[in-house]
Write a structure and sequence with these properties.
Layout: H1 2-29, H2 36-61, H3 69-86, H4 91-114, H5 120-138, E1 143-144, H6 148-157, E2 160-162, E3 169-171, H7 173-191, H8 193-203, H9 205-210, H10 215-241, E4 243-244, H11 252-262, H12 274-294, H13 300-334
Antiparallel strand pairs: 1-4, 2-3
Helix pairs in contact: 1-12, 1-13, 2-7, 2-8, 2-10, 2-11, 2-12, 3-4, 3-5, 3-10, 4-5, 4-10, 7-8, 8-10, 11-12, 11-13, 12-13
Length: 335
């Protein structure tokens, strides 16, 4: 059993080792890389991606996929900007509407997948087109957010000022929300009955059904949760950009899936963690930061390196699967 757990934890351990190695490489290669400001920027620039990837982690662990995340984020950001600026709605009320819309969107997709047994790829592909079109219907172009509550209260009054480094660092509320979502998701996945059911369904849905688990309810739950986290990520993205743009977040779902895979979550389902996902997002952010420090490399190298890492981790997952099956057969013979 201990060996089986070690084999299952190998992808996450590899992710964390890669994260530490990349940061050490940056610290050795570039002056001022190992600073509080760099870590702060890494968290601020990727807060929305972490939240979106948390929801995707639940979906992939359950054995599914969601291609609508990027479009749902763009819709959420655009809807928030339109409600605040054109509708005169207070940002908190606008956020509540956006979260309700994201929850409903994920619920509908979950029902179509779990109850009507439509393939997740097709449902979420349709959802991607629907959310993107709805974003342009809400507002056909980018809309800035200038409300005082957003510009002053959120970005200045509620920001935390920490005495780190020579000048100190300012942590905006977006990072705090990201950390709260991450902690909540970790507790839900590791210490709640729903989280254990998600692992069981992803590992073997038929066996989970025979064990008495409500497989359909679990699947509806993970897609509903992913719709909610996509809405939260869209709100964080709107705060980060200070605007809502229906054309934004194109391809974001692929970045999210890449981060989840690099974070050690098996694409076939049944294994993974939100801590690994967080490390996966930070790895993508570190690659981009290192390229920025280098100065003479194109930003497209981020995509090239990310693609290589995804391939490496997919091969690692395949190898782990082979080892896990051998461990299982050995345990059965010994038993």
């Amino acid at each position: 059993m201990k060996l089986h757990r070690l084999v299952s934890a190998t992808p996450v351990l590899a992710t964390c080792a890669l994260l530490v190695g990349l940061f050490a490489f940056g610290a050795i290669s570039y002056p001022n890389f190992a600073s509080a400001a760099v870590v702060r920027n890494l968290l601020v620039d990727n807060a929305f991606l972490v939240v979106a990837a948390v929801g995707m982690t639940f979906v992939i662990i359950s054995g599914g996929i969601d291609l609508s995340v990027g479009a749902a984020m763009a819709f959420s950001a655009t809807l928030a900007a339109a409600l605040i600026e054109a509708g005169g709605v207070h940002p908190l009320a606008a956020a509540a509407v956006v979260l309700a819309a994201g929850l409903a969107f994920g619920l509908v997709q979950g029902v179509l997948i779990a109850v009507l047994d439509v393939p997740p790829f097709m449902v979420t592909l349709a959802g991607m087109f629907l959310a993107r079109g709805a974003a342009f219907a809400v507002h056909p172009q980018s809309r800035g957010i200038t409300h005082p509550f957003v510009a002053t209260t959120l970005n200045e009054t509620l920001a935390m000022h920490l005495p780190l480094g020579a000048r100190g660092v300012t942590i905006p509320p977006t990072v705090v929300v990201m950390l709260l979502v991450l902690i909540g998701a970790w507790v839900l996945l590791r210490h709640a009955r729903f989280g254990r059911a998600v692992y069981a369904v992803g590992d073997d849905a038929c066996a989970a059904r025979l064990m008495g688990l409500a497989v359909r309810r679990v699947k509806v739950g993970v897609y509903t949760l992913c719709g909610l986290t996509s809405a939260v990520a869209g709100l964080l993205f709107a705060l980060y950009q200070q605007s809502g743009d229906p054309a934004s977040c194109k391809g974001m779902e692929l970045d999210v899936i890449a981060a989840v895979i690099i974070g050690g979550t098996l694409l076939r389902g049944g294994a993974g963690s939100v801590i690994g996902t967080f490390a996966g997002v930070m790895i993508l952010g570190l690659i981009q930061t290192i390229i920025s420090f280098q100065g003479d490399l194109s930003s497209w190298w981020t995509r090239i390196v990310a693609g290589g890492l995804v391939l490496v981790f997919l091969l690692l997952h395949q190898g782990i699967g082979v080892v896990a099956r051998r461990v299982g057969r050995t345990a059965d013979r010994q038993g």
